[in-house]
Amino acid sequence: MEHDFYWISGSPNSWRAMLALEHKGVAYKSHRLDPSKREQKDAAFLVLNPLGTVPALKLGGTVITESIAIMAYLERAFPASPLFGESALETGLIWQRIFEFVNGLRNLIDEGVIRPLSHGTKGDGSAVLKVSAKAVRAALAKLEAFCKLRTTSRLPRGQPCCSCGSHGGTQSSDASSIGQQPERIGTGSGVRRGAVLPPLPSPNGSRALR
């Protein structure tokens, strides 16, 4: 069955669903919409998604919208390379960490920092941002503590904590802290030396994977 994926560059929700497609190795046809032309509000796209939002995944005569719903479909339709673990325990711990971030940090950043910077703040804007920054730092410190505690220790020794299979129980020795992530990304840490990465999908074109 052919999959048509509609997305907008710069949309985290689109990236989330696209990463799931890539991780699962699902072949899909890419349709990048241009928000400057309001293509997501075009009549042709509104037939697919009356809400005019992305991402949207069309398969046959069915359209699935909302990134988490798309990921849930992919998880069931393509069980290889699971997104949310292979056991009930793994699934529970993965979703726990996801919602710890969503409930404890994302709104602080969005509402306290990004929105004021994007839309301006009333009154003493710098004071508002200082208060928000303090709250964000406190939340980041808690998340940092989780990383340092190697939260996979609750799993039996040697049991992988996720589908990558490389973080086995208390054997995990690479529980990198948040502060280390930019350095890891900048140096390519975690990417096999000499590995050839797959090309990004073209704005509008087929992507056949593996």
Report on this structure:
This protein has about 210 residues and is an alpha+beta fold. The chain has a five-stranded mixed beta sheet, covered by helices on one side. The two termini are about 15 Å apart. The protein has two domains: about 5-80, Glutaredoxin; about 90-175, no CATH class. It has helices at about 10-25, 45-50, 65-75, 90-120, 125-150, 180-185; strands at about 5-10, 30-35, 55-60, 60-65, 205.
SSE arrangement:
Elements (H helix, E strand, L loop, with lengths): L2 E6 L3 H13 L3 E6 L9 H6 L7 E4 L2 E4 L1 H11 L10 H32 L5 H24 L32 H7 L16 E4 L3
Parallel strand pairs: 1-2
Antiparallel strand pairs: 1-3, 2-5, 3-4
Which word captures the global form?
flat
Assign a percent range to the helix content: 40-55%
Strands, count: 5
Distance between the termini: 16 Å
User: Given the helix and strand composition, which structural class is it?
Assistant: alpha+beta
Radius of gyration: 20 Å
Largest sheet descriptor: 5 strands, mixed
Bin the strand percentage.
5-15%
Number of individual domains? 2
Strand order in space, largest sheet: 4-3-1-2-5
| Overall pLDDT | 76
What is the subunit organization of this protein?
Answer: single chain
Number of helices: 6
Name the helix and strand elements from N-terminus to C-terminus, one letter apiece: EHEHEEHHHHE
